[in-house]
Every structure is written in structure tokens, then in C-alpha cells.
């Protein structure tokens, strides 16, 4: 439970962080809140030669509205995301997910950028991020680029992060004003990690038919995914208990369920169905 030896350096700007990554010759790791990286280091699942602290870079903090998207600085903490008035007004599902991350200490230190960029298959925020069409802004040696969440995360703890790059912010699409949202999870009591977590954004038209729906599921498999079969089954439907139950029964379809000490594949499949149904009913019925 003791990390391997490493050097520590603090970056005062994004440009300096990139330079330090270059100088580390592939041995450097960025650290912000540290709640994702340090446990891996303690188990020696990763052994960076240099930790580059980006927690004091002021340009990586803050929340603002830009057109039809909300821009959240990568260093914004879970607590700030959970309480920020703009996030609560325009993308409340992100605030709801952030409120359920770990415990108070973790929410005070852990960051939005770190939680999403780490690509932990059992993280809370990616479920909300995927239903909000999240995009990551990356700054590196060749300038700045934007990457969608579903292009960025390609496996458990595996991303398309370019070498020597920094996530500077994450942007989220503002759903239509008539929609409502929620995030529910079945969590492991010791860690608070979701065994299965479900984020939903859904709205109905004047005829009470579902005209907008996105369902994101985390914790169930190798990475966060959209339950598109559920969305397709419900679009254009007038919600009822039976209609929702039938659609929610498709939540795990075409998805590879994970199996570990906390839950078997079969149990996770049932949790996907149950929590998708609960989330939808809490909004629509």
C-alpha cells in the first residue's frame, strides 16, 4: 500500500504542465484531486516517475455558459459542480451525479476533469456526461482539440488522450427546456462507487408522447454506455408503467456486463433494468 518512489513538481500554467510532461519522457502523470490516481499508485498498478500537480492552475477552474453548452473547467471540484447555480439550472443531472460521488472529503478534492478523463468504468460523472453529449477540450504540443466523450473513452481506464496533453475543460450540451433529468445508482456501501448507475434526460410533447430521451449507464461494464435500445423503444410513446417496464427490460441489451466481487453479470443486468425503470418512472409517472 506504499507507492513507488516518484518526483513531485507543481505546474503554474497549462503550458508549463505540457512542458513538464514532455521532459518526463513518458514517465509523468498529472495529478489534480488525486482520488483516482493515488489508489492505483498505492497498489503499484501505475508507477509514474514524476507527479505533475495542476491543482493550482486558475485557468482550469470555473463554470460558464457558451451558446447552447455549459463549459466546466477541468479543475472544478465535485462539490462545486453539485452546488453551482448554472449547472443546477441548465444541466441538473450533472449536479445530481456530482452530489453522489464518494463522500464529503472526496467531493471537496476530486475534480470533474479527473473523474471523466480517468475513464473508470464505475465512476459517477460519465453517466451524466454521456447523456449531455459531453466534449473534452484537450491542450497539447500541437495546440487545442475537442473530442467527444464516446470517442475519448475506449475501454476501462483507457482513453484516446494525446501524449503530453492536458484536459482543460469539459463542455455539456444544454438539453431542451421541457426535459427533466435524474441520476440513480445502486452503490457499494464501503466505497460509494456505483455497481450500476443510471442517468436519464427525458421530455414529452404536448400530446404527452416522449419526444426526447437519453439514458446513460455506468458501473455495469467496461465503460459507460448509452442504452440506445431503451431510447428507441420509448421515443414517440405515451409513458405508462407497462411501457416503461418493457423498455427498461432492454437496458442491458448489446452491452457487455462486468462481473466482480460486488456483482455478477446477471445481477448487474437486473440492476440495469430496475434502475432504468426507477429513473424513468421518477420523472414520467
Automatic annotation (TrEMBL):
Organism annotation: Siminovitchia terrae
Stored InterPro entries: CO_DH_flav_C, CO_DH_flav_C_dom_sf, Diverse_Substr_Oxidored, FAD-bd_PCMH, FAD-bd_PCMH-like_sf, FAD-bd_PCMH_sub1, FAD-bd_PCMH_sub2, Mopterin_DH_FAD-bd
Keyword annotations: FAD, Flavoprotein, Oxidoreductase
GO MF assignments: FAD binding; oxidoreductase activity
Record domain FAD-binding PCMH-type: where: 1-177
Signal sequence, start to end: none
Matching SUPFAM superfamilies: CO dehydrogenase flavoprotein C-terminal domain-like, FAD-binding/transporter-associated domain-like
Protein name (database record): Carbon monoxide dehydrogenase
Tagged with keyword DNA repair: no
Amino acid at each position: 500500500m506504499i507507492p513507488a518512489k516518484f518526483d513531485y513538481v507543481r505546474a503554474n500554467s497549462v503550458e508549463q504542465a505540457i512542458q513538464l510532461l514532455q521532459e518526463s519522457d513518458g514517465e509523468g502523470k498529472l495529478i489534480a484531486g488525486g482520488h483516482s490516481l493515488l489508489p492505483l499508485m498505492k497498489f503499484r498498478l501505475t508507477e509514474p516517475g514524476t507527479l505533475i500537480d495542476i491543482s493550482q492552475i486558475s485557468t482550469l477552474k470555473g463554470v460558464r455558459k457558451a451558446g447552447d453548452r455549459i463549459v466546466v473547467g477541468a479543475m472544478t471540484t465535485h462539490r462545486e459542480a453539485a452546488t453551482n447555480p448554472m449547472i443546477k439550472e441548465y444541466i441538473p443531472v450533472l449536479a445530481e451525479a456530482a452530489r453522489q460521488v464518494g463522500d464529503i472529503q472526496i467531493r471537496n478534492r476530486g475534480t470533474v476533469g479527473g473523474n471523466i478523463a480517468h475513464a473508470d468504468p464505475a465512476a459517477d460523472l460519465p453517466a451524466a456526461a454521456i447523456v449531455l453529449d459531453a466534449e473534452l477540450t484537450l491542450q497539447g504540443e500541437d495546440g487545442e482539440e475537442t473530442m467527444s466523450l464516446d470517442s475519448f473513452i475506449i475501454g476501462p481506464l483507457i482513453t484516446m488522450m494525446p501524449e503530453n496533453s492536458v484536459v482543460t475543460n469539459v463542455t455539456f450540451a444544454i438539453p431542451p427546456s421541457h426535459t427533466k433529468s435524474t441520476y440513480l445508482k445502486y452503490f457499494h456501501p464501503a466505497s460509494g462507487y456505483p455497481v450500476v448507475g443510471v442517468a436519464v434526460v427525458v421530455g414529452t410533447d404536448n400530446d404527452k408522447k416522449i419526444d426526447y430521451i437519453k439514458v446513460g449507464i455506468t458501473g455495469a461494464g467496461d465503460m459507460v454506455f448509452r442504452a440506445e435500445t431503451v431510447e428507441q423503444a420509448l421515443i414517440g410513446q405515451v409513458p405508462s408503467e407497462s411501457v416503461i417496464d418493457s423498455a427498461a427490460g432492454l437496458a442491458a441489451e448489446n452491452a457487455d456486463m462486468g462481473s466482480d466481487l460486488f456483482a455478477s453479470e446477471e445481477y448487474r443486468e437486473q440492476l440495469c433494468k430496475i434502475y432504468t425503470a426507477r429513473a424513468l418512472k421518477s420523472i414520467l409517472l
